[in-house]
Amino acid sequence: MATASDLRRGMAINYNGDISVVLDFQHRTPGNLRAFVQASLRSIRTGKTSDVRFSSTEKIEPVPMITTKMEYSYKDGQDYVFTDPESYETVTLAAELVGDAKDYLVENATVTVTFVEEKAVTVELPSSVILTVTDAPEGVRGDSANNVQKAITMETGITVQAPLFIKTGEKIKVDTRTGKYMERA
Predict the structure, then answer these.
(1) Predicted pLDDT at 21
(2) What pTM value is reported for the model?
(3) Pick the CATH number of 66-124 from 2.40.50.140, 2.40.440.10, 1.20.140.10, 2.60.120.1440
(4) DSSP the chain
(5) What pLDDT does 70 receive?
(6) Predicted confidence (pLDDT) per residue in 40-92, tens digit
């Protein structure tokens, strides 16, 4: 058994008979009161998010998690289909679970999917991805006094600020955490 002070982001715990994933947590020690942990939990069964306050010494029951490298295959309506490259099994995940990762998914992109009791709970992208530029307007001549950027559109539909010399059809590296241009690929 662990204590509430051992909570970490992405961890799965058994809370009130339901398995929940820790989305966020803060350890607080207000003035002359006892320390507590404020956590945001998402139930795997219902998908609802709740804010919970634990005493820092309160016992929690961690649930084992399995992480698997998977490849993005295709979009099926609103859902996303991923394939295990070793066993070739497919997993269909809802758009809500994929979240903002959808902006960086291209065919055969490798992601890490975390499972708790054979149910996918999170999709984690690599720190950077290589995307193809589909629309890059021409830069205006004489606009090079400072580090001038222009908005370019990527193959996934997202817009990224990039230097003026980037042209349509080029491949660039984009940081998935910030959504910013890193370099040419």
Answers:
(1) 85
(2) 0.70
(3) 2.40.50.140
(4) -EEGGG--TT-EEEETTEEEEEEEEEEE--TTSPPEEEEEEEETTT--EEEEEEETT-EEEE---EEEEEEEEEEETTEEEEE-TTT--EEEE-HHHHGGGGGG--TT-EEEEEEETTEEEEEE--SEEEEEEEE-PPPPTT--SS--EEEEEETTS-EEEEETT--TT-EEEEETTT--EEEE-
(5) 92
(6) 988 887 878 889 998 888 888 888 888 889 998 988 888 889 998 888 888 88
